[in-house]
Amino acid sequence: MTLTANNELSRVHAASPVLKSGPQQAANPAYCGAAMQTRTCCPACLSVPLTEVYREPYTSDGIQNYLKTQYEGNASSTADDCLYVLSRCQRCGLSFQKYIPGDPFLGEIYNSWVPGTDFEREHRNYSLEEYRYLAEQVQFVIQHLGRPPAAVRMLDFGFGWAHWSRMAMAYGCRVSGVELSQERSAHGQSVGIELLTLEDLPDQAFHFIHTEQVFEHLTEPRAVLDRLVAALAPGGLIKISVPDAVTSLKKIEGGQSFGSLSANDKMPIAPLEHINAFSHASLVAFGKAAGLRPVRPSFYRLYNSASGLLQLKNLARVLARPVYRHVFPRNTFVYFERAPQ
Ligand SMILES: [Zn+2]
Asked: Are residues 260 and 288 in the same domain?
């Protein structure tokens, strides 16, 4: 998937202010205004010892220029009395923004700052390669589960404009979904998704849960993951795919300012939105902390689901892609399994 498409997806998957401020937040220091809240422990493993790895005022030229460009002039000055601070958990290694928007400010960002997306525009931009990639993922999951498609129940958490869900339904699976936007929810319902909310997810109901560009946005990612794990059937799979922040973090900790980073390197640590900055290692630790086990898909299944018929002329492409995407690089697209009972 192209970076542009990823950016689009990250925009349509709004952050989830699902869980109200809990014990993870404390009173703000003087330099962080009322619109923001302070994280005092790791949002993934809930451990307290943290190391600050970067800080820059929101009023710096670099961040102001970024906000102006990213939000097409819609950004207000709400964050200007705060600092952009990246902290790292000493236990699980997750890097994350220490000062994050509170619920009203999140509403402002996702309703007023983020430029609107519409189905037609996203639909037009979807390439054959992207549909093929969705199909491969759906086939892989069904094969891994070893159930007939009609007996596979899936949850698309933050389904956006339902591209993944529609592919899963085309393969005969039953798909439920959670989505905050009313417009996208209505679209999802119109194409056959059963609408649910995080609060009313049935226990142990889903064989597969799909999350794409969601967890980097969440105020309390661990609480959300725990809820999703409870909704997963024993032996079920959950996909967590997030931006890989390793290169961005390396550069910013190596002395570069946020403003000097390329657009590609800004994206995984985007102020106010990508508040959890995962690496492969911290993503795996995140899943394990919630009782999950990372799955390394077998080559046989990958080739089978990637290719159908292995034609010689396509062999190099077919062999390279699943290895690249699923197995070899230590990337931030991981399937996790809930232990069978
Ligand atoms: Zn941690």
From this structure: no
